[in-house]
Amino acid sequence: MARQFARLKLRLIRNGLRAPQYAVLFSVGATGSAILALVGFFFLAGLRTERVQDNATIVVFGMVTLVWTIVPLLGFGTDETLDPQRLALLPLRQSELLRGLLLAALVGVAPVATAFALSGSIIGLAHGAVSAVLVGIAIGATLLLCVTASRTLIALLSPLLRSRRGRDVMIMVITLAVLVPQSFRLFSATARYADVRHELANVADRVRYTPFGLGGLAATEAGKGHVLNSLTATAAILVMVAVLLFLWARAIPRAMTSADTAAPARTIEHRPNNNLPLFSGSLTFLPRDRAGAIAAKELKYYVRDPRRRTPLIAALLLPALFMLSTFRGAAAHPRATTLLALVSLLPASGLTLNQFGLDGAALWTTIVTGNRIDADLTGKNVATAIVVAPIILLPAIVIASITHGWMYLPITIGLAPGLLGVILAIGNVVSAWAPYALPDRRNPLAANPGQGCVGFVAAMGALLVDVVVLAPVGVLVAVALTHLSLAPATVVSVAAASAYGYGVWRLGRGLATRHLRWTMPELLLAVSPRQAG
Predict the structure, then answer these.
(1) What value does the CA radius of gyration of the chain take, rounded to a whole number of Å?
(2) What is the band of 297 on the pLDDT scale with cuts at 50, 70, 90?
(3) How buried is 190 (Cβ within 10 angstroms: 0-12 exposed, 13-18 middle, 19+ buried)?
(4) How many helices (H) and strands (E) does the chain have?
(5) Of all helices (H) and strands (E), which one includes residue 490?
(6) Dihedrals φ, ψ of 271, to 5°?
(7) Secondary structure letter of residue 372 according to DSSP
(8) Per-residue DSSP letters for 88-131?
(9) How far is residue 39's CA from residue 45's CA, in Å, rounded to a whole number?
(10) Dihedral sign from CA coordinates of 235, 238, 244, 247
């Protein structure tokens, strides 16, 4: 029966590759995994002649185990090819289901890439046939621990992760998990490490006897010829795997039978026709036309829909990390560092991609109310600009106060609209030519089942194009600041960047409008929830 699960997993992956766009994205993801696997393999293999090979091996094994345990939580719902809920009605015993899910979890690009990367330790540590076998066993036990830990944690937390509150908590945890390590640097005595060996030894000593470091400990002990120590560490890993399998088996029935948490019912408030609830509250400044209605709808959904808030993670993390690093070395930064706050706009490009995919089946209302794609894109862009404005204003003000670069604040804020116009233009084009469906369930990070890299590849491609198209603005600003004083350079740079950004935005919106004017049925099919599995 377990073999049937593996065959089913392979068949589902193969069927997903029939769509050309997903075949390309899968190839890109597989290529990236292969590159990482090669880097890990040669790094571990190259430690054979290094004095730090034991400590470095333990640290690498620990990092791999930690990533395998935590990262799948971020992708909860993105790969549902063998979701236990879909198997609830099949006449399977719990033991059969557990073995099948475990074997299916070991099938895929990530497990193969991880096994290949860690196998470099065989070359780096082994000094004979016995030690090579023991290192191989340690690698297999580590991979088994990685898979069981990730699946068990997901099964235990699945009821929480399915709820809207749980998705919001997960977004906050992701943000804090990235910010906390950087914030610790504020309290360190020095920004660089003088002795890498010493730091590796410190980290290895802390994780050596933890569940994350036992795999590396078993491998290094085997390389030293300490057979008993290696077998003891491997046995400890297998005991943890057995405990995790027991917890997984207990959690699967609850994960299969628990329902998604429904939002509480809300009472509809009847209002006079002249007081439209769409433009209530702080949205009264928006125009009462189609573009204004679209903008108001988008802004309300930014507050209510976790999938729309998720791209804000990347848009907020880079400015936060940059501000923390600026706090760290404020005295060493020149005043012109304030201009680097504009880099905060690049991650915000993720808010402009797949703008119609978030509408899903509700996009039919746009079609039946008239083919006004230009007004729809204008409304979506206005909403994005309103959301992005604080992302650029706050870092610019904070960095200017740290570096005393207040004189560069006008040019920094003045350049933002022009740069944002370019980003919005590229986002409109990508939204028109490469839309994809997003499932309205579980994980705010979810893309199509089994195709979790769709959004990532689209974001990276758009970010590269953003940099290329924005390059002329960067050259112009650099030349102006070099040959003119600050005040004239500000006027020339802001005027030229604004005109350039507006022109590119009009061009991008026009291209997207002309493409979608006659392909709305195809767009509706592409973003249909049915396409999201």
Answers:
(1) 26
(2) confident
(3) exposed
(4) 20, 0
(5) helix 486-516
(6) -125, 160
(7) -
(8) TTS---HHHHHHHHHHHHTSSHHHHHHHHHHTHHHHHH--SHHH
(9) 10
(10) negative
Give domain limits for the chain.
Answer: 2-257, 283-532
DSSP letter at 342 equals G
Backbone angles phi, psi at 451, to 5 degrees: -130, 50
CA distance 262 to 125: 53
Buried/exposed code over 94-130 (b: 16+ C-beta within 10 A; e: otherwise): eeebbbbbbbbbbbbbbbbbbbbbbbbbbbbbbeeee
Separation of alpha carbons 141 and 153, rounded Å: 18
Q: Which residues fall within 8 angstroms of residue 289, CB to CB, at 6 or more apart?
A: 375
**Region at 297 (left for phi over 0; alpha for psi -120 to 50; beta for the rest):** alpha
Residue pair 383/299 in contact by the 8 Å Cβ criterion:
yes
pTM: 0.60
What lies within 8 Å, CB to CB, of 130 at 6+ separation is 227
- Residue 422: closest CA among 376, 388, 395: 388
Please tell me the distance from the alpha carbon of residue 136 to that of residue 126, in angstroms, as a whole number.
10
Q: Quick one: DSSP state of residue 407? A: G
For residues 8-17, one letter each, b for 16 or more C-beta atoms within 10 angstroms of the residue's C-beta and e for the rest, the string is bbeebbeebb
pLDDT in tens, 159-207: 666 665 665 566 556 555 555 555 444 444 444 444 667 777 888 888 8
User: In the structure encoding, which two tokens stand for residue 440, read together?
Assistant: 């309205």
Are 35 and 192 contacting, i.e. CB atoms less than 8 angstroms apart? no
Residue with tokens 């740069």: 419
Whose CA is closest to 55, among 133, 113, 124, 112? Answer: 124
